[in-house]
Amino acid sequence: MVGSERIPMEASLFGALVITNLCNVGSRFADSPFPSRLAGSPEANITLCIEELVTAIVNSLQNFEDLLADYAPARLYYSSLGAESMTDEARVFFSSTRLLLSNATA
């Protein structure tokens, strides 16, 4: 999903219940601030992963209204992003890079 975070981001802003797993960006709140995360991975056990996904989908459909409130932090997080937050992210990145470079040359 790297580089395509916009799809679940926009889906959550429009009221979708996004389901992901813990691999790659799914494990970071900043990239994927969704409460529904599958514990399994298709690489480890595809059958178990499919069963877990089906259970999550059925639960989402049966309890949509109750679960929707759990996605408020994701919607709030995404709706707060803009030019200022991008500037802050760039500042943190460059500060970290500067620190890494100074430690590497020391």
Can you walk me through this structure?
- Strands 1-2 form a two-stranded parallel ribbon.
- The model has no long low-confidence stretch (mean pLDDT 81).
- The chain is 58% helix and 6% strand.
- The protein is mainly α.
Task: State the main characteristics.
106 residues; mainly alpha
Distance between the termini: 37 Å
Which residues form runs of ≥5 with pLDDT under 50? none
Strand order of the largest sheet: 1-2
Let me know the largest β-sheet: 2 strands, parallel
Overall 3D shape: flat
Briefly note the structural class of the backbone. mainly alpha
What is the tally of helical segments? 5
User: Rg, please?
Assistant: 17 Å
Helix content: 55-70%
The counted number of beta strands is 2
Q: What is the domain total for the residues? A: 1
Strand content is 5-15%
What's the order of the H and E elements? HEEHHHH
Q: Please, what is the average pLDDT?
A: 81
